[in-house]
Amino acid sequence: MLDLSAVAKLEKNKISSTGVWLVLLEIQFQGVTIKICNNNENIEWPAGSGQTWVAFPFELGEVNENDKGELPQLTLKVSNVTRTVQQYIEQYAGGTDAMVILRVVHSEHLDLTTPEIEEYFMIKKTTTDAYWATFTLGPDYTMTQRVPPDKYMKNFCPFPFKGIRCGYNGSATECNKTLKRCRELGNSVRYGGEVGIPGVPTYV
Fold first, then answer.
1. What are phi and psi of 139, to 5 degrees?
2. Does pTM surpass 0.85?
3. Distance (Å) of CA 170 to CA 164, 176, 190
4. 91 with 114: CB under 8 angstroms?
5. What is the set of domains in the chain, with CATH numbers?
6. pLDDT exceeding 90 applies to what percent of the chain?
7. Beta carbons within 8 Å of 34's beta carbon, 6+ residues apart
8. Mean pLDDT, the chain, as a whole number?
9. By CB distance 3.0 to 4.6 Å, which of 24, 134, 156, 177 could disulfide with 103?
């Protein structure tokens, strides 16, 4: 469940309101950033910042999930009638891996610098026709990267045998990457395994 701010709860519980919830869309291509909003006029957010969000038609689809363990995807359709978006798509390699940020703010509280909702996505696929530029969005790349980036093992050296980090230049033609073998080759000072990891070792 979303943790709504006090302002959001107040607006949600009003019987009537003159304000509306606005979705702000920021697309960060390699050389340019597009900022648009689903409104009938341009807005400035945060108020007084000089950042203008241009009124421009776009639609958000539903999140597609399956039971195959694949990451969820979201469809975003941006108007392509004027061909403005298509120009950016053609200029920046179809927009693949461009960052997309979705924010939700309230029109009566544009002075607040923190959006009510903020989600990050990456463009995975792009298609266009005379009416829409359709982007398939996936999770931000940081969610698909391994953290930490390397795997740490007690009795395995990740360095390529006879590579720069290995440093072995003897006559042996193979190595099973264990500390025992590294000692046999007289190269244990360059061993890349993490011998300090707790646990019962499998070598002598």
1. -60, 150
2. no
3. 13, 15, 14
4. no
5. 6-143 (2.30.110), 146-196 (no CATH)
6. 51
7. 25, 26, 27, 85, 88
8. 84
9. 24
Cα distance between residue 132 and residue 76, in whole Å: 10
The backbone region for 97, taken as left when phi is positive above 0, alpha when psi lies in -120 to 50, beta otherwise, is left
First to last CA, the chain: 53
Residues 137-144, mean pLDDT to the nearest whole number: 68
What's the token pair of residue 201? 């070792």
Q: How far apart are CA 124 and CA 70, in angstroms?
A: 13
3-state secondary structure of 37: strand
- Which single residue is written with the structure tokens 């045998």? 161
Please give the structure tokens belonging to residue 136. 């398939």
Name 134's bridge partners: 77, 127
The lowest-confidence range among 6-15, 88-97, 113-122, 195-204 is 195-204
pLDDT digits (tens, 9 = 90+) for 38-94: 999 999 999 999 999 999 999 998 777 655 556 678 999 999 999 988 999 998 888
Computed on alpha carbons and rounded to an integer, the radius of gyration of the chain in Å comes to: 26
* Length, in residues, of the chain: 204
CA 93, CA 104: separation in Å to the nearest integer?
28
